[in-house]
Amino acid sequence: MDQALTLVVLAVVAIALVTMVGNRLGVAAPLLLLAVGGVVGLMPFVPAIEVEPEWILAGVLPPLLYSAAVSMPAIEFRRELRAISGLSVVLVLASALVLGWFFTLVVPGLSYAWGVALGAIMSPTDAVATSIVKRFGISPRVVAILEGEGLLNDATALVLLRASVAAAATGWSVGGIARDFAVAVVVAVAIGVVVGRVNLWLRARTLQASVNTALSLAVPFAAALPAEHLGASGLVAAVVAGLVTGRGSPRVLSPQHRLSDAEVWRTVEVLLEGAIFLVMGLELFGLLVDLDEDDHHLGRTIAVAAAALAIVLLVRAAFVAPLLLALSRRAKRGRPCATGSTGCASWRRTPTGSPRPSRPGRGSTPAGGAGRHGWSACASSRSGSSASGCAYGAGSPTSTT
């Protein structure tokens, strides 16, 4: 017991120190933690470490994805839903299928179902990639799409992994896998919506900020565990509960409660993300031992992994290139006016031929939000002393100051 507590304390201190160093060096802290864990794990006096996958799947990923979903702007998620769905579902499925074919070629005796299972493990991107992308000044719209993808691609991969493993045991059936996938997602979405709404109803009646935040810590597990029990995706349920909570919390929770939530959940994110990458590094020595005991050649294993990585990148590039082109064209069509101007309006012709600005709800939305609420916010800002302008257009909501 004392040894376990000592390891936990050392891990928390290591995560905090490495995160501080990473911020100063401008390097993503998870990558540094991965390196630190790998170095420590290779030391001769450190035993091989192995963590049960269920601890990660059931205890770590649901709160991480829930927290990311709560902070995801609902407007951006809805606006980019088509792109997010393509990246988090279609791209993951395509990558897993192509990788499954590749693994059947390079691994003797491996069936296609097990190949797809391995491909499902490698297909989803990691949230660390998004944090690195932000450092290069990438468009906020692209960053929002990548963050939305990160919410759902893990869940897609896990559902596909389970379906592939079941197919390997009982027989391969595309229709059966598609049916299992659809049922798992639909049931998880329903559970997530119910848990999210119950969460908002209960917390709206809780006055103490500390108690309110404590309740929020239970929400991802309240969504994930029933979904897993019913054979659905617990991660999808946690994400949907987070989206429902994030959308409704400004209306039912006080600013004090939301600030308390933000601080606590940011700490949870730092510790859990750091723990995942630290453990990954510590498990490196155990993986090398397993390879040696199974008589696998290390060089061949690295070559297969590198080729699989190249395939993932090629499939992603082939999928993302036309997606970015379509987004660029849509942005150009929806641009209301020249960059840098204020108080812009999209003009449409009246029956008499004279131009007049489009009203909200007819192909354009004020920067303040959708419908009459956004129009009221825009009117209020214009009537004040500040020189804030509201932009209208057929594209995405924008605001200029």
Brief summary of the model shown:
With 401 residues, this protein is mainly alpha-helical.
Helix-strand string: HHHHHHHHHHHHHHHEEHEE
Number of strands: 4
Helix content: over 70%
Mean pLDDT: 77
Structural class: mainly alpha
Number of helices: 16
Give the N-to-C terminal Cα separation.
Answer: 58 Å
Estimate the global geometry from the Cα principal axes: globular
User: Stretches where pLDDT falls below 50 for ≥5 residues?
Assistant: 337-401
Strand order of the largest sheet: 1-2
Task: Write down the Rg.
Answer: 24 Å
> How large is the share of residues in beta strands?
under 5%
In this structure, how is the largest beta sheet organized?
Answer: 2 strands, antiparallel
Secondary structure: elements and pairs:
Elements: H1 2-25, H2 29-41, H3 53-59, H4 61-71, H5 74-79, H6 81-106, H7 112-122, H8 127-134, H9 140-170, H10 174-204, H11 209-229, H12 234-252, H13 255-282, H14 284-293, H15 298-333, E1 347-349, E2 355-357, H16 371-383, E3 389-390, E4 399-400
Antiparallel strand pairs: 1-2, 3-4
Helix pairs in contact: 1-2, 1-13, 2-13, 4-9, 4-11, 4-12, 6-7, 6-9, 6-15, 7-9, 8-9, 9-10, 9-12, 10-11, 10-12, 11-12, 11-13
